[in-house]
Structures are given as structure tokens and as C-alpha cells.
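Private note to self, pasted from the team thread so I don't lose it. C-alpha cells:
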């Protein structure tokens, strides 16, 4: 299958180096894949790749000193699976054209329809391990996609050449899923017809297992946790797109529940209010932009403030520092 997802590790980490120059090892070793090592003294990464007839597989391990952004370039539309096998916190995939972003939590997975374009992968500090598998949508034909209702919108988007990215609900990556990924990676062989059968079989098993996990987790769950998760995803998206310039009441309205009920279920499942979650995300966004060297005035604009003084007041209240003091302290550290 043609390589269509290009992960620009060189932009962050420089050119490839020898194996002995990195301290980390792959969390799951891929047999007979192409392996590349990267390090810039602060951060390290290992990229393993395998090109099969029915799908392209990436296994990526990171050890990062702090949060990093990796550019992604997609040459053609495909269906993708991303599994976050290891990580201290969630990763984010940003669509730079639509400004949409979606998270994947540790030991969770999501399917994506990603059309041609530019994206970003935002990674937390520490160790992170991601398995990415993109595959031919043509494996779904003659109605065989019918049992996989959670994928219908993505399959339709691909068939209709939709220019907008989209994603499935997420699902748990447990021991069975990890075992299938390990079995997939260790049985790979270049130039072997049996490998193509193996890839197709394991892809089929992973899709069926994802469907099972979705059913167990979502269709057996109460409506309240589904609403809480829907609200949480919307808050993440709104902070990314609008900064502080939206209300929790608008989140409640969009999830078709009352403001009081939203706060009740948010406390129940996330042990904080929806507003507290919003402002935690906003604080992290402000810090990230400041550390990128963006001026306080432009950070304020990006975060939905009409005046920089209001941003400074928010930031001082949250951190005990002005934005300028925060930048100076960060540089000294």
C-alpha cells in the first residue's frame, strides 16, 4: 500500500542516527519492518514501519522532555486506527485546515477518516507509544460493513471523498487488543504472500474486537456517562477553537441537557465541574502559546479575550504569575 502518512520526526529531532545513540527500546518490536532512530539530546523517538498490500503500519515510541508537536502530512485519504498503548496523558490530533482536534487517552483507541492535508500530533512529556494502522477502505464491500455501525460515518466519508476529517467514538485498548497488535507486528515478513493474509486477518480481528469494545462500553452504559463524555469532548474542541469565548450553558444546550445536570454528571465521572475542566484546558493553552514565543496580545486574541489585560488577570489568578514572569521563569528553568 502506498505510504500516505508522513510523520515529520526530523523537524523536531533531526536526521536519523544509529541504534546505540538512543536509550529507549521499542515497546513492541516489529519483525522485518523499516526502523529509524532519532535523538536531539533532549528527546528520543523510534519509528517502525511496514508497507503491506492491505495496510501500512507505524509503531512509534517517544521519550520527550516536555510537550511536543509533530507535523503530519497526508497525501491521500485513508481510514486510520490510532492506539495509544502507553502514555502519561492524552495525545491530540489537530486538523490544521478545519482547526478541529480530537484526543486519544492512554490505553484507548480511535478510528479516523483523514483526507489529504496537514495535521499535527501533540504529545505529552515522558514515554509515549502509538500504533497507527491505515488501510484500504475497499475491504468494506457488498454490505460487510453493516455490523460495524460505529464506522459507518467514516466509511461513507471515504466513499464520498469528503474533504473534512472525522473520527469514531473511542474504545478501550485492553490485553486482548494489545496481544493482537503484538501478534500482527511479530509475524511480518517482506515479500511473503502469507504476510498479506496475516495482515488482512489481523486487521479483520482488530476491527471486530473494536466493535465488541464499543458495544460493551457504550451500549451497556447509562445515558449519563455518554452525555458526560460528549460534553467533555465538546469542551476540548471549543477551548481549542474559541479559547474562553464560550459558555458551559452552550455545551449543555448542544448536548441537550440542563446546565445543572451537566455539572452533576461531570462531577460524578470526572470529579470536577465542567467550568473547572474548561479553565484547566485554557490555562494549558495559554502556557503553550506563550512558550512558542507568541506575544501576550496575540495569545489573548487566540484565547478569545478582547483585551490582553483580561488574559493577564486570568493567568495571574491561576498561576500566581504574569505571562511575562511565566516566560522568564520558564527560560531560567
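Design output:
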Amino acid at each position: 500500500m502506498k505510504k500516505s502518512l508522513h510523520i515529520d520526526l526530523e523537524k523536531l529531532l533531526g536526521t536519523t542516527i544509529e541504534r546505540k545513540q538512543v536509550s529507549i527500546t521499542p515497546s513492541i518490536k516489529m519483525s522485518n519492518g523499516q526502523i529509524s532512530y532519532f535523538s536531539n539530546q533532549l528527546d528520543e523517538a523510534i519509528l517502525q514501519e511496514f508497507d503491506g498490500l492491505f495496510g501500512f503500519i507505524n509503531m512509534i515510541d517517544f521519550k520527550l522532555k516536555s510537550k511536543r508537536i509533530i507535523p503530519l502530512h497526508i497525501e491521500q485519504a485513508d481510514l486510520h486506527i490510532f492506539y495509544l498503548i502507553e502514555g502519561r496523558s492524552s495525545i491530540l490530533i489537530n486538523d490544521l485546515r478545519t482547526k478541529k482536534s480530537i484526543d486519544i487517552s492512554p490505553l484507548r483507541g480511535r478510528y479516523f477518516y483523514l483526507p489529504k492535508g496537514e495535521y499535527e500530533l501533540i504529545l505529552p512529556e515522558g514515554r509515549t507509544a502509538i500504533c497507527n494502522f491505515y488501510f484500504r477502505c475497499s475491504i468494506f464491500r457488498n454490505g460487510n460493513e453493516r455490523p460495524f455501525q460505529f464506522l459507518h460515518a467514516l466509511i461513507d466519508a471515504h466513499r464520498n471523498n469528503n474533504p473534512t476529517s472525522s473520527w469514531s467514538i473511542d474504545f478501550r485498548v485492553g490485553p486482548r487488543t494489545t496481544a493482537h497488535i503484538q501478534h500482527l507486528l511479530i509475524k511480518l515478513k517482506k515479500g511473503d504472500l502469507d504476510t498479506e493474509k496475516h495482515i488482512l486477518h489481523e486487521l479483520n480481528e482488530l476491527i471486530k474486537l473494536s466493535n465488541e469494545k464499543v458495544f460493551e462500553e457504550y451500549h451497556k452504559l447509562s445515558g449519563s456517562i455518554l452525555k458526560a463524555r460528549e460534553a467533555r469532548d465538546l469542551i476540548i474542541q471549543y477551548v481549542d477553537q474559541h479559547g474562553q469565548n464560550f459558555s458551559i450553558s452552550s455545551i449543555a444546550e448542544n448536548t441537550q441537557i440542563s446546565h445543572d445536570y451537566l455539572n452533576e454528571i461531570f462531577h460524578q465521572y470526572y470529579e470536577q465541574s465542567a467550568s473547572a475542566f474548561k479553565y484547566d484546558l485554557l490555562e494549558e493553552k495559554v502556557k503553550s502559546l506563550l512558550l512558542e514565543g507568541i506575544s501576550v496580545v496575540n495569545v489573548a486574541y487566540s484565547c478569545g479575550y478582547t483585551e490582553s489585560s483580561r488574559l493577564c488577570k486570568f493567568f495571574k489568578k491561576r498561576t500566581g504569575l504574569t505571562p511575562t514572569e511565566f516566560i522568564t521563569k520558564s527560560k531560567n528553568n
